[in-house]
From TrEMBL:
Organism expressing this protein natively: Acetoanaerobium noterae
Record-given protein name: DUF1573 domain-containing protein
Length: 128
């Protein structure tokens, strides 16, 4: 499915939470539910664990190579149940991002294209 097609479908089906205030609060809610689903995968299911520590970054390493020396701090892999829950929660979040774009007459495709161009041009330096 194409992003513009999805965004158009969101426009068609979003009736109840059409106010910008509803959309913004639903966006916050779906973000929190996504975060909660990750936390439950760790604390309730245990399919993944978080082993966080300070990233050890050497000043002698070139910035373009830093990704080889950093970690995402996750051990394990999502089980099918946790993965399904996260797909659902992230899908809801993307739904409300699309709704926000529709309400503000922004094109998610154009936004992603612009961000893609930016990270393509600036590479790893785009995150500064």
């Amino acid at each position: 499915m194409e992003l513009n097609e999805f965004t158009q479908k969101v426009e068609e089906v979003l009736i109840r939470h059409k106010s910008i205030l509803d959309i913004m609060t639903k966006l916050q809610e779906t973000d929190a539910r996504t975060t909660r689903a990750v936390a439950k995968a760790v604390t309730e299911c245990g399919c993944i664990s978080i082993k966080a520590s300070k990233q050890q970054l050497s000043t002698e390493v070139d910035y373009s190579e830093l990704d080889k020396f950093t970690s995402n701090h996750i051990d394990g892999e999502l089980c099918p149940r946790c993965k399904e829950q996260l797909v659902h929660e992230i899908g809801d979040h993307i739904f409300y991002i699309s709704a926000l774009c529709n309400t503000l007459n922004l094109s998610p495709g154009d936004i992603l294209s612009k961000k893609h161009d930016e990270i393509t041009t600036l590479g790893k330096f785009s995150l500064f």
